Amino acid sequence: MSFKGTPNREGRKKGTPNKNTKEIREAFKNLIELNLEQMQKDLKELEPKDRLKMIIDLSTFVIPKLKQTELSIDNDTTFTPVQITFEEVQHIKEALESKY
């Protein structure tokens, strides 16, 4: 059996979702939605430490992970401290309290 048609040598355009991935995500979403009550019951039956671990593990599917960042300080950098008076701190505090 040979391929018939014109092969797409350029691939998908950037940003075009993969159909299989989209279908799998939708099926998984439906599975979770249909079994939400059972999952809640199962979670309640777990020990507190296991329940917390499960919630954290499940959260990775909902909340994006933060990337680890590295901070480096060049030894040649000079640091100039800023001096602020008590009155300036009070003024900043009042400004923040009125805004929030």
Task: Write up this protein.
By secondary structure, this protein is mostly helical. The protein has one domain (19-99). Helices cover 52% and strands 0% of the residues. It contains four helices and no strands. The longest helix is centred in the N-terminal third of the chain and has 16 residues, at 19-34. The radius of gyration is 27 Å and the shape is extended.
The secondary-structure class comes to: mainly alpha
Helix content: 40-55%
Q: Number of DSSP helices?
A: 4
Low-pLDDT runs of 5+ residues are: none
Question: pLDDT average, as an integer?
Answer: 83
CA radius of gyration is: 27 Å
**First and last CA, distance:** 69 Å
Strand content: under 5%
Number of strands: 0
Q: What general form does the structure show?
A: extended
Number of domains: 1
Quick tags:
single chain, 100 residues, mainly alpha
Write the layout of secondary structure elements.
Elements: H1 19-34, H2 36-45, H3 48-59, H4 86-99
Summary, kept brief:
By secondary structure, the chain is mainly α. The protein is built from 4 helices and no strands.
